[in-house]
Amino acid sequence: MRRILEGAGFREVSLTPLDPIIRLAPPGGDAEATDFMMVFGPLTRILPSLSTEQRDVVRAELAAFFRHYDGPQGIVLPAANWVVQARA
Q1: Which residues share a beta bridge with 15?
Q2: Residue 9's Cα: distance from chain center in Å?
Q3: CA–CA distance from 69 to each of 26, 45, 72 (Å)?
Q4: Residue 41 pLDDT more than 90?
Q5: Spatial contact of 84 and 34, defined as CB atoms under 8 Å apart
Q6: If both were cysteines, with which of 20, 44, 62, 74 could 26 make a disulfide (CB 3.0 to 4.6 Å apart)?
Q7: Total of domains in the chain
């Protein structure tokens, strides 16, 4: 990222990691988290091309995945983001 921005003429490029914990649903909310992921995010590109049966399999697998991350604070997942700053 730094090389790309500096190559484009930006200066004072800084990259700062920002790794929050994302709460997708309350405790026991695997269905809620699954519904969210089925409507938002990268799955929305592939789901329309799947059959109803295939979408049901995806939904079941997602719910099982989210149950693994369910705890006292609900379903929480780590995130990895970067804050990028530069001057033109």
Answers
A1: 84
A2: 31
A3: 11, 24, 10
A4: no
A5: no
A6: 74
A7: 1
**pLDDT per residue as tens digits for the range 3-33:** 999 999 999 999 999 999 999 999 999 999 9
Tokens, residue 75: 């379903």
- In angstroms, the CA 13 to CA 85 distance is 6
Residue 59 lies in domain = 2-87
Q: What amino acid is encoded at 68 in this protein?
A: H
Distance CA 17, CA 19 (A): 6
pLDDT single digits (tens) 52-83: 999 999 999 999 999 999 999 999 999 999 99
SS3 content of the chain, % helix, strand, coil (to 5): 45, 30, 25
Number of neighbours of residue 55 by Cβ within 10 angstroms:
16
